[in-house]
């Protein structure tokens, strides 16, 4: 017996009946991006492995555990992109976008790959709506990015939105906080998990994001980074909070929020929504003022966010949100006899050439079976060809909703259909 193949673990098929949801979400993403003045960019699905090691950071779970890396036939080390930002920054540098009016506003929609433990809404191949604004350190740009994420989710139907927000400082003030954090954790070394012991050496801020229950009491009493911010970072964070207050956006300063990537500086945030289960966060992002320089470009600030489309589609389905149906064909061409079949094939092709969505039956099926098929397609009109119609130069047109039939000349059919379908 031949092997029965299935989609690899952590991947899934997007079936035809799912695409109305996906198209709805993707079209909303593009609509919101256009409103805010962002333009689309597509980067390669694989990049140099070192780009992600330098950009995302050694010691992160993504680099250490989750990247799909390989050596190609040219002995080049490549990685399927695990996130968008590093590749977009590479494109910014490579194509000299620093000469364009700043900030450069870009968005991407597409697949990413991480070797994670599959769970609800989390896959090894997944898709994101990703937004980047590059070239300005203004906290008003942070507010714009956050507002864009909020509006996207709100217009899709998410309820009870709120921000979780924090500042992770900058290279000037973060070392002082990291020193205090490590000293605190060393006092509780026997109380933390083995993963946190490794994080303390390689990526200390990540201990604040630990989910292990035994570490929660230690995290709760850890030093807060906002107490260690330099004047520039503190003023930046205060300005952002003023914008959020003025706009009436609900937010909580979450001292545990650090995000999982090394390149974040100053602002980090998540958008939370009600009624979507234990994982409240549906979107996350922040500022990455050192990333362009880290990958070989000039010092360039930036800020952005990403939202996972699988999670959004799952929410739309579970909440019963109605989305536009996939368009159905308008016309079904049915036939009686071999000569009529040849004529039907050519007629269907003529209608399609004039952009009238048309389907026809295949194989040897009687007229009743063909019309049942037309009903399943949900067409408005069935065009019927038989020997009598061919002799008279006519077709029989049945309006499927009423069952009424009329005779229409073959030469007049195109105009007759266009008038009724486009009227």
Describe the model:
The chain has helices at 19-35, 49-56, 61-66, 85-94, 139-156, 174-187, 194-202, 216-220, 231-247, 291-294, 309-318, 338-353, 367-377, 387-392, 413-422; strands spanning 39-40, 46-48, 69-71, 77-80, 104-113, 125-134, 162-167, 251-253, 265-272, 281-287, 302-308, 331-335, 358-360, 381-385, 394-399, 405-409. The protein is of the alpha+beta class and 423 residues long. Helix 5 runs parallel beside helix 9. It is elongated and about 95 Å long.
How do you describe this structure in short?
This protein is α+β, with helices and mostly antiparallel strands. The protein is 38% helix and 21% strand.
CATH class of the largest domain: Alpha Beta
CATH topology of the largest domain: BirA Bifunctional Protein, domain 2
The N- and C-terminal alpha carbons lie at a distance of 55 Å
The total count of helices amounts to 15
The global form is elongated
Helix content: 25-40%
Briefly note the structural class of the backbone. Answer: alpha+beta
Q: What Rg is obtained from the alpha carbons, in whole angstroms?
A: 28 Å
Strand share of the residues?
15-25%
Number of domains as seen in the coordinates: 2
Low-confidence stretches: none
The counted number of beta strands is 16
Relevant CATH superfamily of the largest domain? Bira Bifunctional Protein, Domain 2
What is the mean predicted local confidence, pLDDT?
91
CATH architectural name of the largest domain: 2-Layer Sandwich
Give me the side-by-side strand order of the main sheet.
Answer: 1-5-6-11-10-9-7-8
Major sheet: 8 strands, mixed
């Amino acid at each position: 017996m031949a092997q029965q193949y299935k989609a690899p673990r952590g991947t899934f098929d997007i079936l035809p009946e799912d695409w109305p949801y996906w198209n709805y979400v993707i079209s909303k993403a593009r609509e919101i991006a256009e409103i805010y003045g962002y333009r689309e960019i597509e980067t390669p699905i694989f990049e140099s492995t070192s780009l992600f090691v330098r950009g995302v950071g050694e010691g992160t779970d993504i680099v250490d555990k989750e990247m799909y890396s390989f050596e190609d036939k040219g002995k080049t080390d490549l990685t399927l992109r695990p996130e968008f930002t590093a590749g977009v920054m590479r494109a910014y540098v490579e194509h000299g976008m620093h000469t364009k009016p700043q900030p450069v506003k870009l968005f991407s929609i597409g697949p990413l790959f991480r070797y994670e433990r599959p769970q609800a809404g989390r896959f090894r191949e997944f898709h994101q709506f990703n937004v980047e604004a590059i070239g300005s350190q203004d906290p008003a740009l942070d507010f714009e990015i956050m507002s864009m994420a909020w509006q996207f989710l709100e217009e899709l139907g998410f309820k009870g939105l709120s921000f979780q927000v924090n500042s992770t400082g900058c290279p000037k003030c973060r070392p002082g906080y990291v020193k205090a954090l490590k000293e605190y954790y060393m006092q509780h070394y026997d109380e933390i998990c083995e993963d946190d012991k490794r994080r303390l050496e390689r990526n200390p801020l990540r201990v604040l994001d630990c989910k292990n229950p035994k570490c929660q009491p230690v995290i709760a009493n850890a030093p807060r980074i906002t107490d260690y911010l330099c004047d520039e970072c503190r003023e930046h964070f205060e300005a952002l909070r003023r914008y959020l207050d003025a706009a009436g956006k609900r937010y909580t300063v979450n001292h545990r929020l650090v995000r999982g990537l090394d390149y974040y500086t100053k602002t980090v945030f998540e958008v939370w929504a009600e009624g979507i289960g234990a994982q409240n966060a549906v979107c996350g992002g922040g500022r990455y003022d050192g990333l362009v320089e880290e990958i070989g470009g000039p010092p360039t600030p930036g800020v952005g966010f990403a939202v996972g489309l699988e999670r959004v589609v799952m929410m739309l389905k579970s909440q019963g949100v109605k989305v536009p149906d996939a368009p159905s064909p308008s016309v079904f061409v049915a036939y009686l006899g071999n000569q009529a079949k040849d004529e039907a094939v050519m007629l269907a092709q003529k209608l399609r050439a004039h952009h009238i969505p048309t389907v026809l039956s295949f194989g040897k099926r009687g007229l009743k079976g063909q019309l049942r098929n037309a009903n399943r397609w949900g067409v408005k009109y069935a065009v019927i060809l038989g020997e009598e119609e061919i002799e008279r130069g006519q077709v029989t047109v049945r309006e499927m909703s009423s069952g009424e039939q009329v005779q229409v000349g073959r030469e007049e059919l195109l105009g007759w259909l266009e008038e009724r379908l486009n009227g």
